[in-house]
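Collaborator request log, item 7. Partner lab (contact: R.S.) asked for a structural prediction of DUF779 domain-containing protein to inform their binding assays.
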Amino acid sequence: MATSRLDVTEKAKALIQELSSTHGDLMFYQAGGCCEGTQPQCFEKGGYFPRMNDALIGLAEGFEFWVDRDLFEYWKHAHFTLDVLDGFGPGGFSLETPLGKTFKVHYRLFSEDELANLAPVQRNE
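Returned to partner:
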């Protein structure tokens, strides 16, 4: 079995379930900076369109998790864990913002064994 690039904490799973019950299908996008910083943003599916060559690194509770192409190049040797915190993120565009929550990613570098067996990413064309 290939090494996953993405995991989701129990707190994030609960929030994703809450958001999907209200908004339907979701998607996540983690940009490389600007007004939204590098916090992951949660949108209704189709509410944001990944750019060419952005990377789909996995699914968060069945919903696509996209990473900006440049940010992915920087973090391609790291595992992402999607978590949620109380408080407002830097952008405020994400669906959890009105609930006083913000998604956050924790990173760790892959081990040599994990790197040798990484799940492939899908690129947006």
